[in-house]
């Protein structure tokens, strides 16, 4: 659904902010594309509000080509790999988190424009900002952030982008609401949408809810991708941390069907003898 829509990074040009990636028509089935702001404003005693273009320009100025190459290898961006097409500037995550706190007052519409950048770090910064806006916002703001997030999953296209945002935004919004959107996500043909659905369940598990997350885990026992096996395994491990007996019942019923990676992560906190017991089955 959303791999392959990329723009080659301007590695041999001076650091000028790139234009946002081309947007497939299907992305805006629910809302028109956001317009990029053309001015910067600083409000007294409030975080700086910076235009999308200016913030992209600042990010490009921070690029580190050596780190960028390392990131491209780590996040599997070669042709045929799960992160194919991701392009990196080489900016550390702590720097992006600091920028997100500084620019959290940007309009959500502008943040969504940032999310459409071809640069991985720009998309991650946008997601950090959206999480802050969701966590600090009122009901109207939270709904707006959630809605725009699920409308733009095209740009949430690697595991770190999913993992830094889906639990807080999707899980946070659906915690006390109809969970049908989670099942829609985990049934998607798109790897990253399925992972968004699983990461959203972590928020439910934090609140002690096991039944629905286990129902979704059953649906994903036959998922073909290793990144899904890891995510479901982590979720099962967290369920076991809070309710070991419930996890043991799930394992006893499904261990024969579980991918090995999923099982290993699920039993990670079990005693050694119990881990051996399940791995031998």
Explain what this protein looks like in three dimensions.
- The protein has 281 residues and is mainly alpha-helical.
- 56% of the residues lie in helices and 0% in strands.
- The protein has 15 helices and no strands.
- It has helices at 52-61, 65-74, 93-102, 108-115, 120-136, 139-151, 159-163, 166-174, 180-186, 191-206, 211-219, 226-242, 244-254, 260-266, 272-279.
- The protein is globular, with a radius of gyration of 20 Å.
- The two termini are 37 Å apart.
State the gist of this model.
With 281 residues, the protein is mostly helical. It has 15 helices and no strands.
Question: Which blocks of ≥5 consecutive residues have pLDDT under 50?
Answer: 1-46
Mean of the pLDDT scores? 86
Structural class: mainly alpha
Summarize the main sheet: none
The termini sit apart by 37 Å
Assembly of the depicted chains: single chain
- Percent helix, as a range, is 55-70%
Q: What is the chain-wise order of helices and strands?
A: HHHHHHHHHHHHHHH
- Which band does the percent of strand residues land in? under 5%
Number of extended strands: 0
Number of helices: 15
Describe the SSE topology.
Elements (H helix, E strand, L loop, with lengths): L51 H10 L3 H10 L18 H10 L5 H8 L4 H17 L2 H13 L7 H5 L2 H9 L5 H7 L4 H16 L4 H9 L6 H17 L1 H11 L5 H7 L5 H8 L2
